[in-house]
């Protein structure tokens, strides 16, 4: 547990916060952002700290309270990534997204979809066909900042690296378009904090050198 707080304070730099239920693929998204394209090289690229599960997290209020407690230990937050496995807008997802917009603001939100079909992962237009009008309206409200993180069960081979790279470049583009909280030294670090919600909450703190994150 102490290592977690050490990681959160590394460099006192801006952070990327990933929010999603346990098992949705937050750590995988962090891997891909750093250029690690498999589940097995995470420790070679950055440090991960896991916190024990909390079975009592069932509402956005609890998620937000938890974020407020953790984020205040980080210097600034650059972007919040809401991670979902569903391509359709469920009532629970709609509630969480609307609550995130209310509590966290629109300008730093990005939605990341995981575990999607091959075609929907490769072609943004195909993925868009699955969105209903309500979902499209919500996505427009955050300037259509959404991407699909490729499923490693489908793209976890040599041929899949190109798709992973393309989609992560789009995500990095969205992140770079968001105004940074403040300027820092060229050797600043990014913290990626992954929190879960709804049923179970897991915290994963991932420290990534920005040179790796933004220049690959």
TrEMBL record:
Q: What stretches pass through the bilayer? A: 188-208
Q: Which domain of life is it from?
A: Eukaryota
In its keyword annotation, does this UniProt entry include Transmembrane helix? yes
Instruction: Kindly give the SUPFAM superfamilies that the UniProt entry links to this protein.
Output: P-loop containing nucleoside triphosphate hydrolases
Instruction: Note the InterPro entries from the entry.
Output: P-loop_NTPase
Q: Which UniProt keywords apply?
A: Membrane, Transmembrane, Transmembrane helix
Q: What is this protein called?
A: 6589_t:CDS:1
């Amino acid at each position: 547990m102490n290592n977690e707080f050490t990681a959160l304070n590394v460099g006192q730099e801006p952070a990327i916060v990933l929010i999603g239920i346990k098992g949705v693929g937050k750590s995988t998204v962090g891997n891909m952002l750093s250029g690690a394209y498999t589940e097995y090289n995470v420790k070679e690229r950055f440090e991960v700290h896991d916190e024990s599960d909390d079975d009592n997290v069932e509402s956005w209020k609890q998620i937000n309270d938890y974020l407020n407690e953790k984020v205040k230990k980080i210097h600034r937050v650059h972007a919040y990534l809401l991670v979902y496995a569903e391509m359709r807008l469920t009532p629970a997802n709609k509630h969480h997204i609307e609550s995130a917009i209310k509590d966290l603001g629109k300008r730093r939100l990005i939605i990341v979809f995981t575990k999607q079909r091959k075609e929907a992962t490769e072609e943004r237009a195909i993925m868009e066909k699955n969105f209903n009008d309500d979902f499209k309206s919500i996505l427009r409200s955050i300037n259509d900042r959404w991407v699909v993180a490729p499923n490693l069960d489908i793209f976890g081979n040599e041929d899949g690296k190109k798709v992973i790279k393309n989609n992560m470049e789009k995500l990095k583009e969205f992140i770079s378009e968001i105004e940074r909280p403040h300027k820092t030294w060229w050797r600043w670090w990014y913290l990626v904090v992954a929190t879960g919600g709804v049923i179970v909450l897991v915290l994963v703190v991932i420290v990534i050198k920005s040179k790796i994150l933004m220049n690959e």
